[in-house]
Amino acid sequence: MTWTPESLSKCFLDTLSPSPEPRRAAEAKLAELANNPEYGLAVLELVANPVVDEQIRQAAAVNFKNHLRSRWSPLPESGDSPISDTVKTQIKTLIVSLMLNSSPRIQSQLSESLSLIGKYDFPKSWPSLLPELVSNLRSASESNNYASINGILGTANSIFKKFRYQYKSNDLFIDLKYCLDNFAAPLLEIFLRTASLIDLAVNAGSATPATLKPLFESQRICCRIFFSLNFQELPEFFEDHMREWMTEFRKYLTSNYPLLEDRADGLGLVDDVRAAVCENLSLYMEKNEEEFQEYLNDFALAVWTLLANASQSSRHDRLAITAIKFLTTVSTSVHHSLFAGDGVILQICQSIVIPNVRLRDDDEEVFEMNYVEFIRRDMEGSDLDTKRRIACELLKGIAANYKNQVTHAVTAQIQNLLGSYAANPAANWKDKDCAVYLVVSLASKKAGGTNVSTDIVNVQSFFTSVIVPELQNQDINGYPMLKAGALKFFTVFRNDIPKPLALQLFPDLVRYLSAESNVVHSYAASCIEKLLLVKDDGGRARYTSADITPFMQALMNNLFTALRFPESEENQYIMKCIMRVLGVAEISSDVAGPCIAGLTSVLNEVCKNPKNPIFNHYLFESVAILIRRACERDISLVSAFESSLFPSIQLILANDVTEFWPYAFQLLAQLMELNRPPVPAIYMQIFALLLSPESWNRNSNVPALVCLLQAFLHKTPHEINQEGRLSQVLGIFNKLVSAPSTDEQGFYVLNTVIESLDYSVIAAYMIHIWNALFTRLQKKRTVKFLKCFLIFMSLFLVKHDSASLVDTMNSVQPNIFVMILEQFWIPNLKLITGHIEVKLTAVASTKLICESPSLLDSAAVRHWGKMLDSIVTLLSQPEENRVEEEPDMPDIADTVSYTVSFVKLYNAGKKEEDPLKNIKEPKEFLVTSLAKLAALSPVRYPQIISENLDPANQAALLQLCSTYNRPIV
Q: The Importin N-terminal domain covers which part of the protein (predicted)?
């Protein structure tokens, strides 16, 4: 499709239309045009055309940036870029000058575009970029054109950011040296020149906010470039010119600029420069402490003074955070003696820590208006960049060397705060909140566990005297921030609270689920959920079903009621608590009925517009665990669950709620596995949908569909071989196993076919199965595929004997079995992991060498010995290397995203079946089988063993023979 500048301009104008029809049509046309190799260049030329309306050019600049993002880099499949080298060269020739001569909004888009190109091409494929930027920087500097200066610096800043994040390598240091050689000196020149212009304007009294703002913005960007270029190590140029940099840095921390600081927009700019300076100081403290030492005292004093003088307004937050971080870095360095003076730590508590920990009006606003953000900062540990948390981190840093002094000072402050609250609770409730926050935030988590400890207070005494009265307060809506703090304390120190006291307070936790505050009822749910995870010595759960049975009805009622509060309709903390309670409680039919009704009601509602993937996951986990726990107790409930859930599942499938398809298939698989033959007729309708090739087109559905297909193979083996269904199942296997992204799922299908169907049913298909596997083996063999292939061969052998394995493989190609054995089975056997997989492959391999005529033949002596060596290697590996422990349910927040992808339902999973239940120990099976073989030929096999096993494996085998009293010789 071709275009003209006019038609292209019209397309971009239509993308701005408020009406959806022209907007969508224009977007579709642009997407089609983008496939033309010269499209990007045409869009850039449109951006450069001053005659075109500014709005259209800006839309084109955004489109150009997105076009480069998706097409500039080589495609992973082919390694080629959709944009030709010729067009790339033309774009790179135009973009710098165009960016510098554009309006600010277009300039920012082109700067990002330039950075995207630089990410892939700079410096090796774009050596002219940096000289061009430096040349333009010097020209702009001579004319004091700070619009261009800041555009150039912003672009350089974006390009140099990679030095902060990439791992050290020779290539990285080559690129860094190139940038330093070309840009370090010009950077210092513009930084000092801008500093002199600021000083001149301020001292002469001629400064205005309009003249100062671009100058401060320039200094801010220079400081960020300084950070990038110094991040890996201290460059020689910066070491030689450290005094010039540090002199200017100190000036911005100690000077006042009232013309800017008296204005909201100007204050932010000055604070941004100071914050950037503090980050540079922290970097030097961490990485160049020795070289920085002579400047340390002056900067520590300057930062301290700055913090003490800064107001508690949220406008100063970023500056306060970076400044406190710098002091924290100093406190943990060899220069910590700066904090050793009399009264210093107490002064830090009073002038820095307490003011920054105390609640402010904007904290209360976030608490009331955006509970998700408040919890993210406060409860989930992602608040390291809030003033409250970072102030406590400073105390922790100082405590690393002055623990007793910090403990004494903080304890005194907490007592003062609690005393103030006691004197006038209504007026001074924030003092109590501050005291509780200090105790919680200064607690230390013990390595490798959930237990926390503190020396600040006696936890049980503090809990009884300070927290319990708050929790037992009958007004659940009064002073909600204090209630939230008390619930958080209970949650954090849950392991230290005696069980009798915790159970005594359980009704109060249930009450707080009814609190109007979203934070409070979320914290109450989180506290209950975390309590149910507590384990005592020996790994036993501290709280059992018997403990929560007395509260069960009120607890579930309040949890489902909480989901009806405004803004909590998709509250993930509430739903996670529901899931945890259902996992612990005794699930009778009286409990199961209301719970499945409540869950399906919520499910039907979120189907209309799924927004919170974490909530959604816990919702489906709750359904799955309810089904599992209830049906463990009463299998007759399966039909009741089917009646409740099938309408919701049909809603998901009919309305194409793609996010929920994998969940729906997993629930269907769970219900199918619980059924007893004959299964209801509706399942065979589902089976028809399952066998449709269209169902398998979305990769995100594949694992869940495989679970469902496995359930059908287990439960309806007789129906599989009717109406051509087995051919369709094997067609699905063939499709899955041919692609590296789904090959493992293909083996799951194939293994279930082998386990579930008689050999007489599958014999006719074996040549096609082997052909599919051998084709994939030739095209692309990965370690994952080889392990799956070996497990499949082992399963086939133990189910249908070694002769069937050898004969069916050789029917594809004569003697291919020996080739597969030599090239793949023997060398890869030691890679197998997992208890059942190790057992299966070890037993199958043992059967092969002890029962198969192919391996017992004298011509196969070499293969026999090598196979035995691999078996012994596999069984001699340390247990932790080969056994994959079943983990506790993972924290789903780490794995769920807004994209449509497969997420495993932990509670819907079927326990892995052991195909060799009659064999307890593969090591014993090996030596017993070898002993029987050696008894038939007492000279031959010991000799083969001594000739083919390495000394370590010989010793290991002898040890096994001794352990099980099965002598081979």
A: 26-101
